[in-house]
TrEMBL record:
Organism superkingdom: Bacteria
InterPro entries to which the protein is assigned, alphabetical: ClpP/crotonase-like_dom_sf (IPR029045), Enoyl-CoA_hydra/iso (IPR001753), Enoyl-CoA_hydra_C (IPR014748)
Source lineage: Bacteria, Pseudomonadati, Pseudomonadota, Gammaproteobacteria, Cellvibrionales
Residues forming coiled coils: none
Protein name as catalogued: Crotonase/enoyl-CoA hydratase family protein
Family named by the database record: Belongs to the enoyl-CoA hydratase/isomerase family.
GO molecular function per UniProt: lyase activity
Source organism of this protein record: Parahaliea mediterranea
NCBIfam families xrefs: PRK07799.1 (NF005864)
Record key words, sorted: Lipid metabolism, Lyase
Length: 271
């Protein structure tokens, strides 16, 4: 696996083939957010968007906790940001929201692998990912109200669109924990696996994504991102057709159909 120079102390960014690996790396503090972690994630998502050789990403964490969200021990002002973070933040004021997948999500899929607790911001960033694998010991929760805080990562908007309204309301208003099994029952995650196996399962999903035509995958991901329930269906269909046109005109589409006819695996080039 190749480590990339956009990594920070609290966010390791690596590449293996067509997959970008983004690993939260502050296990001693339950992977609570720091400026360095946010900067690493921001850079990772922008690299995912811009690098044509990257087809998807896997987000995971070191240690036995995925992410505890904001570092409450650091107080309301959080950790002191270094000069590099402040410089980028001056140019990109919503850097933190891009890092947490609230704003400007990349147009390529993100697979999530969760071990242990994913609370507050840990569950908020989950809602910006596409396919979610969790260990049996995973625990979710948007717990901000229990601390007198507001979930600014987008949960009051997104969560009710991803699971039943009344379940979302219970999570948001009670601030209580949800088990992996219950999260699976309500469709918040895709799959539950034995402890320690979430990353391996996420790798398998990423491999299956990478077997497909990258132009098609990107177009489908853009449609999922952009054509929300609030759009009238006829307008969404027209917008979807605009994404489909270049895919059908691509060399990848011709290769896919040739491979089907010749009964062999397709060899996609991204063109």
């Amino acid at each position: 696996m190749k480590a990339l120079d956009i990594s920070t102390d609290n966010c390791i960014v690596e590449q293996e083939g067509h997959v970008l690996f983004v690993t939260l790396n502050r296990p001693e503090a339950k992977n609570a957010f720091t400026p360095a972690m946010l900067l690493g994630m921001y850079r990772a998502w922008r690299r995912l968007d811009e690098d044509e050789e990257l087809y998807c990403a896997i987000l995971s964490a070191n240690g036995d906790t995925f992410c505890a969200g904001m570092d409450l021990k650091a107080g309301p002002d959080g950790q002191r940001a270094n000069d590099e973070f402040l410089q980028v933040m001056a140019e990109v004021p919503n850097l933190h929201w891009q890092a947490l997948l609230r704003d400007d999500r990349p147009c390529k899929p993100i697979v999530l692998a969760v071990e242990g607790f994913a609370l507050a911001g840990g569950t908020e960033i989950l809602q910006g990912t596409d396919i979610r694998i969790a260990a049996e010991n995973a625990v979710f929760g948007v717990t901000e109200v229990a601390r007198g805080l507001y979930p600014m990562g987008g949960s009051t908007v997104r969560l009710r669109r991803q699971i039943p309204y009344c379940i979302a309301a219970e999570m948001l208003l009670c601030g209580e924990h949800m088990s992996a099994r219950r999260a699976l029952d309500y469709g918040l995650i895709n799959r539950v696996v034995p402890p320690g196996e979430a990353l391996a399962a996420a790798r398998d999903v990423a491999r299956r994504i990478c077997d497909n035509g990258p132009l098609a995958v990107r177009a489908v991901t853009r449609s999922l991102r952009e054509h929300q329930e609030c759009m009238p269906e006829d307008a969404a269909m027209l917008a979807s057709d605009e994404l489909a046109g270049p895919v059908f005109a691509s060399e990848d589409a011709r290769e896919g159909m040739r491979a089907f006819k010749e009964k062999r695996p397709a060899h996609f080039s991204g063109r």
